[in-house]
Known about the structure:
Number of helices: 20
Pfam families: SBP_bac_8 (PF13416)
Helix content: 40-55%
CATH topology of the largest domain: D-Maltodextrin-Binding Protein, domain 2
Strand content: 15-25%
Subcellular location: Cell envelope
Distance between the termini: 19 Å
InterPro entries: Bact_solute-bd_prot1 (IPR050490), SBP (IPR006059)
Largest sheet: 10 strands, mixed
Number of strands: 12
Main location: other
CATH class of the largest domain: Alpha Beta
CATH superfamily of the largest domain: Periplasmic binding protein-like II
Protein name: ABC transporter substrate-binding protein
Amino acid sequence: MKKVKMFGMATLALLGSTTLFSAVSPIAASAARTKVVLWDGMTGPYAKSLDKIVKQYNNSQSKYTVVRQSQGNYATLTQKIMAAAKSKTLPDMAQATYTQVPDYEKEGIVAPLDSYMLKGSNKISKTQLKNIYPGFVSSSKWQGKYYSIPFSKSVRVMLVNQDLLKQLGFSTPKTWSDVEKISKAAKAKGDAGVGFDQSFDMELESLSNAAGTKFVSKNLKVKFASSKVLKAADGIYGMLQNGEAWTAGADIYGTNRFAEGKTALYFSSSAGVSISSTTVKKFKLATAVFPSYQGKRSTELAGNDLVMLNNNKKHQAGVWSFMKYLLKDKTTEQWAEATGYLPLTKTARNSASYKNYLKKNPLYKAAADSLPYGFQATAFSGYNDYRTEMLNAVDLVTSKKESPDKVFPASAKKMKTIISENK
């Protein structure tokens, strides 16, 4: 195995959600079966839901026993994977972001899935593959091979203060132009109209992708300082400068400020909707799909995948068996209903059971309705360093109030160097 390098904190920040709960004890393995070890960062109700699925899988067949071992949180999970790679004590599979895959592959940590996924009696058929939403499938590939399957996936959505919108004389915005009008109207009455997390990078790339440009293209051309990205960035920068919008600052997430009732709209991960639903008490809360921009809808997907690690090759068939079980329509539907994460397949999304779930839990409908518009940022070796530079650029725009036209071109040059050095 090649020498393993440590990943920076920016990658760790991408991974997570709530980390306040204690780790869940691993499920015991049967001695008569092949034990397959899963490391994850799931906690609290998410861990309990995953435990249930693991138990169902183990009871569904007699060849393998998946043993789930929670690492307590996502940051710790990543650190332990790196340490285990050095000591050659990796588990059989683990949660990971798709953007970690290129560096994991470079270091010999992950194994490709093609020999199981596309070949043999337990492969995925073309029909089954098409049933998975394209945004998830595309991010599972690296250099022409599959290295992960989607699992705990979320998307950017818009949280809406319906009471304040009504006071301002607006309905739920459908376009970014509507958002800008609401932000101006709210500011005129002494409130900020729009709230973002500490960084607005995912909203910005969603806008620029709708206009036809990602920060980094498929062929690894840096577009961060392109006219389309700068136009969208200048729009957000103007809202921030005019006091029409705010970012969460050091708090990272701005849900508490939104919950106070002084902001009409707040852009958030769908994974945080459940928290907002319990913290909002002062007004009627709704959610909506990310607004269209220049006539097109686009919203960035986030969350975690599962990867097969280079541990015991005799266990790899068991790893794939469990992965395929997670991609079953009924399994992903069950997972989505229990956690609020997205269903991975079109059949699960459109099932009678899931539609009934959305009727009872309407705040999650916006995330489900966003699936056809979901995309994922380009992954590549050195992504962590690139993302650190990108977040630094966005921070200069927000905390230092420097214009994107000044900051982004300099950052784009650094990004090109990072990509070139990691090829």
